[in-house]
Specification:
Elements: H1 2-13, H2 26-159, H3 162-183
Length: 184
């Protein structure tokens, strides 16, 4: 590039003949200047531009590749999470079923225990009633016996006067004498 600039500088410094000269008018040479600048840019900038585009392409491809790998990893994690969720759901259903069975079993045991308690209470009540009934019967018997004895004693007191008492004693003594004579 330096050689090209030097060559251009040399051509403008030497006076040339009339047939060959450089036009210094900017407006007339603008098109030529643009062509030269574009030529330089295409020649020297094409390598730079292509390397920039190539780097950009590689970065985009790498980003896409990384995104695909992350997508696959995320899908794999999602599948694992779904599997764990299904397992947890099955386990929860199993626990719920076991809980319901346990509740049923305990309910049946409580009902059975309540029935047994009710039977024991009924038996205890019946035994207590029989005991109280027997006690009441014994009490009534005692009272009846006491009353009968009292009435009998009252009748004896009323009917047993001194004459009757003496006759009973004489009769008893006579029986004892007859009994003594029979044994001799």
């Amino acid at each position: 590039m330096k050689n090209l600039i030097d060559t251009f500088a040399i051509l403008t410094s030497f006076p040339m003949e009339k047939s060959f000269s450089l036009n210094g008018n900017i407006l007339e040479t603008n098109l030529i200047n643009l062509g030269v600048v574009l030529g330089f840019l295409v020649y020297f900038g094409s390598g730079l531009l292509s390397s920039l585009l190539e780097n950009r392409k590689k970065n985009i491809e790498q980003s896409l590749s990384d995104a695909e790998e992350r997508y696959k990893a995320a899908n794999e994690q999602l599948k694992q999470a779904q599997n764990r969720f299904l397992e947890a759901k099955k386990k929860a259903d199993e626990i719920r079923q076991n809980g319901l069975l346990q509740i049923q079993r305990e309910r049946q045991e409580l009902i059975q225990a309540a029935d047994n308690d009710a039977k024991r209470l009924e038996e205890s009540k019946n035994a207590t009633l029989r005991f109280e009934e027997q006690r009441a019967i014994d009490e009534v018997r005692r009272q009846v016996s006491s009353l009968a004895l009292e009435k009998a004693l009252q009748k004896l007191r009323v009917r047993l006067n001194a004459d009757v008492h003496a006759r009973v004693i004489d009769h008893s003594i006579g029986l004892l004498k007859n009994l003594g004579s029979v044994t001799d």
